[in-house]
């Protein structure tokens, strides 16, 4: 029997039992739509996260207290809540003398209550210097940033995030308003533009920035830094600056064995690479869960095809009596199974694309950071390939069973 004739026979067999065919395809449709949706959302989330990190600047180098041990996915102890006191003012002064660095911005962080009239909320605060705004490329929607005088004179002033300003003051002007931060009266001198997430996952739109001296000495009572951000000089690469920072800190801390470093130095590219790996792993994990529904759908197809073989036993016997070979019967039933999964895959892709578009419309209107539309061609190609392979794998056993039936016994079957 020609392949064309087998194809026509398979189509006729599926059209003869339309409801059963549609119900059989349902598992494949759901599985493929889930794969498309999850891969698309994973790709969009990855682009969103990486774009936000890139927006901070490609020439930045981050110095965190505590050494990273183990795999590249390990985080420094300080990022796990362990107090590390190895970065001090002496280190920042030494780094400022390094020619490969344009600016050095130490900072401390903590959480505290911010009160204005009847509004009372807990936020993250940062103690920073005037270099911080330059290094992080932060823009203000109103007011001004700190000066070196503000830091040296312990001036009780603050620059706050855009969302925090809206929460505390509503439509009122935030500049020159006085808020209470812990037990200090602080005057707001500036409001940031919308900035989104910063390094270490800090929401910069909901934080209070204070002079480093005020936050470090009067709020936290410490003499060390939680983070130092350095900007590489344009004449040098970030990787070269990273190497120089390591050398300066080792000399400052009298470290001769690299395995005993008490700090971690990372460039922006290091952070991007790590984030890219993490989001890719999460996408693969979520997609693999969606593939479970494909397996379930494939098992459903196998069961339905086995039932179909039993119901069409007499038809199989008649075809064999008229000269059809085992290969012809195998080809016919295998084509039916592949057609079911292929059509289910196409429908699943269309439904998945619809929900991807719907998710984009909802998330792009609800997230201030913006959500990019993403429908990766790899997801469509993978969906079509997997759905067709599912038809082959789960349709092969019923097809072989049909092809091996004895024609005489099949014709006598009632």
TrEMBL record:
<keyword id="KW-1133">Transmembrane helix</keyword>
<dbReference type="GO" id="GO:0022857">
    <property type="term" value="F:transmembrane transporter activity"/>
</dbReference>
<protein>
    <recommendedName>
        <fullName>Multidrug ABC transporter substrate-binding protein</fullName>
    </recommendedName>
</protein>
<dbReference type="InterPro" id="IPR050250">
    <property type="entry name" value="Macrolide_Exporter_MacB"/>
</dbReference>
<feature type="domain" description="MacB-like periplasmic core">
    <location>
        <begin position="21"/>
        <end position="245"/>
    </location>
</feature>
<dbReference type="Pfam" id="PF12704">
    <property type="entry name" value="MacB_PCD"/>
</dbReference>
<comment type="similarity">
    <text>Belongs to the ABC-4 integral membrane protein family.</text>
</comment>
<feature type="transmembrane region" description="Helical">
    <location>
        <begin position="375"/>
        <end position="397"/>
    </location>
</feature>
<dbReference type="GO" id="GO:0005886">
    <property type="term" value="C:plasma membrane"/>
</dbReference>
<keyword id="KW-0812">Transmembrane</keyword>
<feature type="transmembrane region" description="Helical">
    <location>
        <begin position="21"/>
        <end position="42"/>
    </location>
</feature>
<dbReference type="Pfam" id="PF02687">
    <property type="entry name" value="FtsX"/>
</dbReference>
<dbReference type="InterPro" id="IPR003838">
    <property type="entry name" value="ABC3_permease_C"/>
</dbReference>
<keyword id="KW-0472">Membrane</keyword>
<keyword id="KW-1003">Cell membrane</keyword>
<feature type="domain" description="ABC3 transporter permease C-terminal">
    <location>
        <begin position="288"/>
        <end position="407"/>
    </location>
</feature>
<feature type="transmembrane region" description="Helical">
    <location>
        <begin position="284"/>
        <end position="310"/>
    </location>
</feature>
<dbReference type="InterPro" id="IPR025857">
    <property type="entry name" value="MacB_PCD"/>
</dbReference>
<feature type="transmembrane region" description="Helical">
    <location>
        <begin position="339"/>
        <end position="363"/>
    </location>
</feature>
């Amino acid at each position: 029997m020609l392949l064309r004739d087998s194809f026509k026979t398979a189509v006729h067999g599926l059209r003869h039992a339309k409801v059963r065919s549609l119900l059989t395809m349902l598992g494949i449709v759901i599985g493929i739509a889930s794969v498309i949706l999850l891969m698309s959302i994973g790709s969009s989330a990855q682009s969103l996260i990486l774009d936000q990190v890139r927006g901070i600047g490609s020439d930045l180098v981050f110095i965190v207290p505590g050494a990273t041990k183990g795999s590249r996915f390990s985080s420094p102890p300080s990022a796990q809540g362990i107090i590390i006191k190895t970065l001090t003012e002496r280190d920042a002064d030494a780094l400022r003398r390094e020619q490969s660095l344009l600016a050095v911005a130490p900072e401390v962080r903590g959480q505290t209550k911010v009160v204005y009239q009847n509004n009372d909320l807990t936020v993250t605060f940062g103690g920073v210097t005037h270099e911080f705004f330059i290094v992080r490329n932060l823009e203000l929607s109103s007011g001004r940033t700190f000066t070196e005088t503000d830091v040296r004179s312990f001036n009780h002033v603050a620059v706050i995030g855009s969302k925090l300003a809206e929460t505390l003051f509503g439509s009122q002007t935030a500049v020159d308003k006085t808020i209470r931060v812990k037990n200090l009266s602080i005057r707001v001198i500036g409001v940031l533009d919308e900035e989104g997430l910063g390094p270490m996952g800090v929401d910069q739109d909901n934080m209070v920035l204070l002079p480093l001296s005020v936050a470090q000495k009067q709020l936290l009572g410490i003499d060390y830094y939680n983070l130092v951000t350095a900007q590489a000089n344009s004449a040098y690469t970030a990787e070269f600056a990273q190497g120089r920072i390591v050398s300066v800190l080792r000399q400052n801390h009298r470290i001769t064995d690299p395995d005993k470093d008490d700090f971690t130095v990372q460039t922006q590219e290091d952070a991007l690479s790590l984030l890219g790996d993490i989001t890719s792993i999460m996408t693969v994990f979520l997609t693999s869960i969606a593939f479970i529904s494909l397996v379930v759908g494939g098992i459903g197809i196998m069961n339905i095809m086995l039932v179909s073989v039993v119901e069409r036993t007499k038809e199989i016997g008649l075809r064999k009596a008229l000269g059809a070979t085992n290969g012809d019967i195998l080809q016919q039933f295998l084509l039916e199974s592949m057609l079911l999964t292929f059509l289910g895959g196409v429908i699943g892709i269309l439904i998945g694309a619809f929900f991807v578009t719907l998710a984009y419309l909802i998330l792009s209107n609800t997230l201030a950071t913006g959500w990019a539309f993403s429908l990766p061609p790899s997801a469509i190609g993978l969906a079509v390939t997997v759905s067709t392979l599912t038809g082959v794998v789960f349709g092969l056993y019923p097809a072989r069973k049909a092809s091996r039936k004895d024609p005489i016994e099949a014709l006598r079957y009632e």
